[in-house]
Design brief:
The strands form five sheets. Strands 1, 2, 8, 9, 10, 11 and 19 form a seven-stranded mixed beta sheet that branches. The protein has a five-stranded mixed beta sheet with strand order 20-18-12-21-22, with helices on one face. A five-stranded antiparallel beta sheet has the order 14-13-17-16-15. The protein starts with 17 loop residues before the first strand and ends in a 9-residue tail after the last strand. Among the domains are: 108 residues, Alpha-Beta Complex (Flavocytochrome C3, Chain A, domain 1), CATH 3.90.700.10; 129 residues, Fumarate reductase/succinate dehydrogenase flavoprotein-like, C-terminal domain (Methane Monooxygenase Hydroxylase, Chain G, domain 1). By secondary structure, the protein is an alpha+beta fold. The protein has 14 helices and 22 strands. The protein is 34% helix and 19% strand. It is globular, with a radius of gyration of 23 Å.
Length: 570
């Protein structure tokens, strides 16, 4: 499948565009982007760009917490072992070492930025989540950890004169020449196009949850950073590994609300429609098994009983305790007529986190000079085939901190503008993906393509996969991409309001293609990737799959063997 270099039409079609210069451009306002902007502002001027509001991100909805070794009976080596166990043999041990060593320091840094973690008896409160052997999960306001982290960091940013905030600004394409990134082309809510030139660009645009019809991710999680990076020639790794959160409550409107794993850490058990507790027969850790194990167990129980859900039972706790420990979850359940102290909560797996993303090294650098990535957009190798609960928030701040240190160390202050900016902007290799004069196509067809994509990804590249369905999915994606490129007309002289929707769709299609091709190639089951036709883990597949757009515009892939001192433990 041919992938155009730019989603953007030539700049003679840009609407009222201007050029802005900054030292460091951060794209995304989750924990990774917010922390990157704050840390970078201590050394340089920063522009923080986000396509929605400053507080709109996956981080905002994070309930469980952030992992760090603080308890006396815990140790970094045990945190490392737990992470590697969950990662099913694909974790990068050097990155794991960084995380377990540096995350306690980052907790102190977050607190210095005003984040208020829950305390108990005058000390930071710690809880336990799935596949963790010790209590090492810090939380805020019971089950509103992400919201509190976002509050603390955004208030710090809003009081920082060296950070310029651009809300409702949609990054469309990375600007590159040779092997260097020089900035992005973006569109503001007003319709004005801007070219932002920066010495360093940090992608922190979040995940790809909107590939699926049932997800914990907000509507903005459309894989924009991954789509931009793919078109620019960046390497993408481990895209077949999607983590489905086992316990998501689906309301009457069909929207998913996360029921934190911390409930199971506090003793909640899973029961099927017959009231039977089933997890002990699937794993020795029962409800605290790795998320992929729990998700597949729930999926199997749903299939066996022909039910749309299983049930979470935490009725051993009192109403008073539940309202204090899990105020957000308790309130939402109450809104839907469920008293967790007396009633079981219907739950089912939903797309939650992408282990794969833009490939980076231990400093957050990509294969493109000047381009960095962190947070869910990136693939550092920390999570391997399956993320250990609450490691993602820790990873975001650890890697954001390292990115800024690398930017300062490299001191690329003389990069300036691309040597041939006008030639770059007027490049002929542009996708014809802008609004046609057919309003029905712009609205109805875009939404139909997106809805069908989500439905098929859920059934064909979901909790379980197999060869025939993956091939069917790939054929559908390639036809949809051709349809978008063929029928959306770039000859229109002005940008339409639907242009962001169209580019989001192309990014989703690109991410779907990467996920599907990777899942086709990996003929085994491991972590967040389960093949019904290859149900066993195979040692010869202890490799990473890496894809990249080649110089001719076509997807090329390679395998990278994992070097590890530890054997997989399950």
């Amino acid at each position: 499948m041919y992938i155009p270099r730019y989603a953007l039409p030539r700049p003679d079609r840009l609407h009222d565009h201007s050029i802005i210069h900054t030292d460091c451009l951060v794209i995304g306002s989750g924990i990774a982007g917010l922390y990157s902007a704050i840390a970078a502002s201590e050394h340089m001027n920063v522009m923080l760009m986000t396509k929605d509001t400053l507080r709109a991100s996956n981080t905002q909805y994070a309930q469980g917490g952030i992992a760090a070794v603080l308890a006396e009976d815990d140790s970094p080596s045990q945190h490392k072992a737990d992470t590697i166990m969950a990662g099913a043999g694909l974790c990068d041990e050097d990155i794991v070492d960084l995380l377990v060593r540096e995350s306690p320091r980052m907790i102190d840094q977050l607190m210095s930025y005003g984040v208020l973690f829950d305390q108990q008896h005058g000390r930071l409160a710690l809880t336990k989540e799935g596949a963790h052997t010790h209590r090492r999960i810090l939380h805020c306001n019971g089950d509103a950890t992400g919201a509190e982290i976002v509050r603390g960091l955004t208030e710090t940013i809003q009081n920082n004169e060296r950070i310029t905030i651009h809300e409702h600004t949609y990054a469309i394409d990375l600007l590159t020449q040779g092997h260097r990134c020089y900035g992005v082309i973006a569109q503001e809510k007003t319709g004005r196009d801007i070219v932002v030139l920066a010495q360093s660009v940090v992608l922190a645009t979040g995940g790809i949850g909107q590939l699926y019809s049932y997800t914990t991710n907000p509507f903005i999680a459309t894989g924009d950073g991954i789509g931009m990076a793919l078109r620019a020639g960046a390497e993408l790794q481990d895209m077949e590994f999607i983590q489905f959160h086992p316990t998501v409550f689906k309301n009457k409107q069909g929207q998913g609300f996360l029921i934190s794993e911390a409930l199971r850490g506090e003793g909640a058990v899973l029961r099927n429609i017959r009231g039977e507790r089933f997890m002990p027969q699937y794993h020795d850790l029962a409800e605290l098994a790795p998320r992929d194990v729990v998700s597949r167990a729930i999926f199997n129980e749903m299939m066996a009983t022909e039910q749309p859900s299983v049930y979470l039972d935490i009725t051993q706790h009192t109403e008073a305790w539940l309202s204090q420990r899990f105020p957000t979850i308790n309130a939402v359940c109450r809104e839907h007529g469920i008293n967790m102290a007396k009633n079981l909560v219907p739950v089912a797996p939903a797309a939650h986190y992408a282990m794969g993303g833009v490939k980076t090294n231990r400093h957050g650098e990509t294969n493109i000079d000047g381009l960095y990535a962190c947070g869910e957009t990136a693939c550092t190798g920390l999570h391997g085939a399956n993320r250990l609960a609450s490691n993602s928030l820790s990873e975001s701040v650890v890697m954001a901190d390292r990115i800024v240190k690398k930017i300062v160390e490299k001191n690329d202050t003389q990069v300036g503008s691309p040597p041939h900016l006008e030639t770059l902007l007027y490049g002929a290799d542009s996708a014809k993906i802008y609004a046609s004069s057919d309003n029905k196509f712009r609205s109805d067809k875009i939404q139909n393509i997106r809805h069908t994509l989500q439905t098929l990804m859920t059934s064909h590249v979901g909790v379980e996969r197999q060869a025939s369905e993956l091939q069917e999915m790939r054929t559908h994606i390639e036809a949809s991409m051709h349809d978008v490129y063929q029928h959306l007309d770039s000859r229109v002289e002005r940008r339409e309001e639907s242009s962001q929707q169209i580019i989001e769709l192309t990014n989703l299609l690109s991410c779907a293609l990467l996920c599907t091709v990777s899942a086709q190639s990996r003929e085994e089951s491991r972590g967040g990737h389960y093949r019904r036709d290859f149900p066993h883990t195979r040692e010869e597949w202890r490799t990473h799959l890496i894809y990249q757009r080649d110089e001719h515009g076509y997807l090329k892939g390679r395998r990278k063997n994992v070097s590890s001192k530890m054997e997989k433990t399950y």
